[in-house]
């Protein structure tokens, strides 16, 4: 009886950690997190997919995922009654600014998560060019190459403006987008700094920095914002063998900020901690810092 | 969405040019820009945009920077000459004339005050006219300015706006994380509500490319207010207006939005929303007047509160307490902006705009998302276009 209760408790915690995301996304992400890399490509090891992916892109990469359309949109088929294939898109931005996109087909937007997960495609966006990666097993090798050969450039569109009624200026030919170099630094990142002057919650995770696969920043509670509440909130988390946060408890911090910090902590995903090669459950403390900015 | 005759890809083009540089320009404000103008370095390029919101002009200076190309905004101005289609769907002739005159005025300023060469001033139109070209506007602009105006398709406009509004990536701790690929741009305009998001496109046989999903519903702040007014007839009762606006929001507007979300899942699943449009500007300015950030974070609670105040207490909403702001310069700047907001809307338009915002937030499920008002987003499309032309 006890093991059943434990399983139920873990299941409830896992479910609540994703309770605020749309149901399909929740299902799909849970499915992805439970999947082994070998399910998607037999040549890959029997590691959880996320652990394998983190190894491939490295601990410095910023990883995020989302539900999305699986690529080719057929506009004609997209009538009111049409269903669309759904993919989980896993994005990683490497320290050298290359972007890796992996698309895993999980079902359709109407029917939900159906059947087996299948690798749809992967893309490396490098120096403004898009490179297709045919098999998941090739991703690691593709990323090791510092620059892909010119003949493999996949995206050199010719842009034409031919408005049938009003003449338009010629746009000309362009190369694909550039994502590297100093001139391509992004604008100031959008940091949540609502009034009263509160900075975006800075997130630190002590000794586990670099192991987190997905980091979620807390949403500022409106009450806290209005009350100009700031400070640190420490959240103790228990991480499952698969890297999910299955327990989160605020142990320090202003009560107005605790809930937001716990909600965010529950959405973090880690690469599994291993002991003698076995994935094990672990505990960590995450510190979310809410600070005010002087002006 | 994809019309092969007009399928060029601004996304790729702009990214190739200097996406982030452009954003930095757009987002860097006027003071810096003015310095660039005075420095007299680099080539000047400008654009004039005619839209439902009014007529905007902007000029940028392209030169050599320390690291590659340097691009700076030297001037921007908006003349309130909105072009809203009449009940018959056509643009009123007087509004067309006003818009053309405004364009001519801005063209003169660009040439005389900023010394922009005439052939480097580009004219674009962002008018939702049901797919047809507003020929009378084309003619009028030609007559007033001697120039030909180019109308952007929904795809082109979304591409330009997404690149001009949404940062490509941001820092999270030590790592870079993708922003543009996980965000959606929504503009709640005067004449309609539009937006879009970027996708990758790949089939087994094809090479990967960027794709784009766009949305458009024929309700903007002005149009929605007018429709409510039409439905309530002669009644000037505010409560009646509010009830009718809520009803219209729950029926036609909600239906139109549902239709979009069903076909375009990214509208719901994307984690960040970058908002532009005058009603969003009003919300951010009125609720958070001293927040001068380039991206102002907003929540669904803010939208609810804004709706509540537009319906119940517009006086207090339109006159926020600024006594806590001690910096006189900042306070003056805020007071001027508040004045602009008060000038920009009728009380009914504020109510209509807030209903629109609430409906979009509900249908597109913003509760758990990061929502931003992009302060300079209104220039995003125009500046992207000028930049693209300048690169030629």
| pLDDT averaged over residues of chain A | 69
Please give the order of strands in the largest beta sheet of chain B.
10-9-8-11-13-12
C-alpha geometry of chain A: globular
Largest beta sheet of chain A, briefly? 5 strands, antiparallel
Strand content of chain B: 15-25%
Low-pLDDT ranges of chain B = 1-40
- Note the run of SSEs of chain A as H and E: HHHHEEEEEHEEHEEHEEEE
Distance between the termini of chain A: 59 Å
Return Rg of chain A in Å: 22 Å
The N- to C-terminal Cα distance of chain B equals: 27 Å
Q: What is the number of strand segments of chain A? A: 13
Number of helices of chain A: 7
Count of separate DSSP helical elements of chain B: 15
Mean pLDDT of chain B: 84
Cross-sheet strand order for the largest sheet of chain A: 1-2-3-4-5
Query: Unreliable stretches of chain A, pLDDT < 50, 5 or more residues?
Result: 9-20, 147-210
Shape of chain B: globular
Return the string of H and E elements of chain B. HHHEEEHEHEHEEEEEHHHEHEHHHHEH
Percent of residues of chain A in helical segments? 10-25%
Give a count of the beta strands of chain B, DSSP E runs of length 2 or more. 13
Detailed description of the structure:
The complex is a heterodimer of chains A (295) and B (392). Chain A has helices at residues 2-17, 23-34, 37-40, 49-57, 139-144, 222-226, 255-266, and strands at residues 62-69, 85-93, 99-108, 112-126, 129-133, 202-204, 212-214, 231-239, 245-252, 269-270, 273-275, 278-280, 282-290. Chain A has 295 residues and is of the alpha+beta class. In chain A, the strands form 4 sheets. Chain A has a 5-stranded antiparallel β-sheet with strand order 1-2-3-4-5. A 4-stranded antiparallel β-sheet of chain A has the order 6-13-8-9. In chain A, strands 7-10 form a two-stranded antiparallel sheet. In chain A, β4 (112-126) and β5 form a beta hairpin. Chain B is of the alpha/beta class and 392 residues long. Helices cover 48% and strands 22% of the residues of chain B. Chain B contains 15 helices and 13 strands. The interface between A and B is large, with 86 and 96 residues.
């Amino acid at each position: 009886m006890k093991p059943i209760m434990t399983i139920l408790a873990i299941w409830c915690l896992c479910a609540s950690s994703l309770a605020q995301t749309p149901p399909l996304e929740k299902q799909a992400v849970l499915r992805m997190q439970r999947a082994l890399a070998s399910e998607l490509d037999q040549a890959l090891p029997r590691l959880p997919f996320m652990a394998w992916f983190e190894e491939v892109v490295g601990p410095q990469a910023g990883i995020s995922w989302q539900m999305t359309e699986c690529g080719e949109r057929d506009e004609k088929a997209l009538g009111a009654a049409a269903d669309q294939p759904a993919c989980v898109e896993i994005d990683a931005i490497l320290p050298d600014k290359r972007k890796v996109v992996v698309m895993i087909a999980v079902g359709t937007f109407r029917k939900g998560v159906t059947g087996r997960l299948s690798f749809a495609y992967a893309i490396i966006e490098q120096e403004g060019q898009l490179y297709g990666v045919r098999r998941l097993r090739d991703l690691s090798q593709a990323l090791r190459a510092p620059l892909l050969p010119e003949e493999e450039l996949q995206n050199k569109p010719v842009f034409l403006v031919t408005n049938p009624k009003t003449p338009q200026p010629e746009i000309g030919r362009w190369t694909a987008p550039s994502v590297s170099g100093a001139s391509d630094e992004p604008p100031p990142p959008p940091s949540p700094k609502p009034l009263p002057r509160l900075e975006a919650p800075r997130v630190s995770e002590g000794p586990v920095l670099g192991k987190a696969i997905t980091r979620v920043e807390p949403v500022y509670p409106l009450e806290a914002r209005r009350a100009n509440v700031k400070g640190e909130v420490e959240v103790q988390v228990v991480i499952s063998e698969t890297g999910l946060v299955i327990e989160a408890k605020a142990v320090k911090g202003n009560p107005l900020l605790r809930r937001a910090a716990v909600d965010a902590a529950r959405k973090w995903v880690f690469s599994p901690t291993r002991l003698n090669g076995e994935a094990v459950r672990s505990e960590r403390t995450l510190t979310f810092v809410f600070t005010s900015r002087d002006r | 969405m994809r019309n092969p005759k007009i399928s060029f890809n601004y996304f790729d083009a702009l990214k190739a040019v200097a996406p982030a540089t452009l954003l930095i320009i757009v987002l860097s404000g006027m003071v810096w820009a003015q310095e660039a103008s005075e420095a007299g370095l680099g080539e000047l390029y400008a654009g004039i945009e005619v839209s439902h919101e009014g007529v905007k002009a902007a000029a940028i200076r392209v030169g050599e920077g320390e690291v590659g190309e340097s691009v700076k905004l030297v001037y921007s101005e908006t003349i309130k000459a909105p072009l809203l289609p009449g009940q018959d769907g056509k643009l009123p002739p007087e509004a067309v004339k006003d818009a053309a005159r405004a364009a001519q005025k801005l063209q003169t300023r660009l040439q005389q005050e900023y010394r922009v060469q005439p052939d480097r001033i580009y004219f674009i139109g962002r008018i939702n006219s049901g797919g047809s070209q507003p020929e009378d506007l084309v003619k009028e602009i030609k007559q007033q300015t001697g120039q030909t105006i180019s109308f952007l398709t929904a795809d082109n406009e979304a591409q330009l706006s997404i690149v001009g509004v949404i940062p490509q990536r941001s820092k999270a701790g030590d790592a870079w994380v993708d922003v543009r690929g996980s965000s959606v741009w929504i503009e709640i305009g005067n004449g309609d509500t539009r937006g879009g998001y970027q996708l990758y496109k790949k089939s087994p046989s094809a090479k990967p490319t960027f794709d784009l999903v766009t949305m458009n519903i024929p309700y903007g702040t002005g149009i929605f207010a007018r429709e409510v007014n039409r439905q309530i007839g002669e009644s000037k009762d505010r409560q009646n207006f509010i009830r009718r606006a809520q009803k219209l929001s729950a029926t036609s507007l909600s239906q139109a939005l549902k239709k979009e979300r069903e076909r375009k899942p990214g509208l719901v699943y994307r984690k960040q929303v970058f908002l532009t449009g005058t009603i969003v500007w009003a919300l951010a300015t009125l609720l958070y007047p001293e927040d001068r950030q380039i991206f102002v974070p907003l929540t669904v609670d803010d939208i609810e509160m804004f709706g509540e105040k537009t319906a119940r207490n517009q006086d207090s909403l339109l006159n926020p307490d600024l006594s806590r702001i001690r910096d006189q310069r900042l306070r003056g700047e805020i007071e001027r902006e508040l004045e602009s907001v008060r000038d920009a809307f009728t009380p009914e338009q504020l109510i209509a705009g807030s209903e629109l915002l609430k409906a979009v937030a509900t249908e597109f499920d913003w509760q758990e998302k990061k929502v931003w008002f992009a302060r300079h987003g209104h220039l995003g499309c125009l500046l992207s276009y000028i930049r693209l032309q300048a690169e030629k």
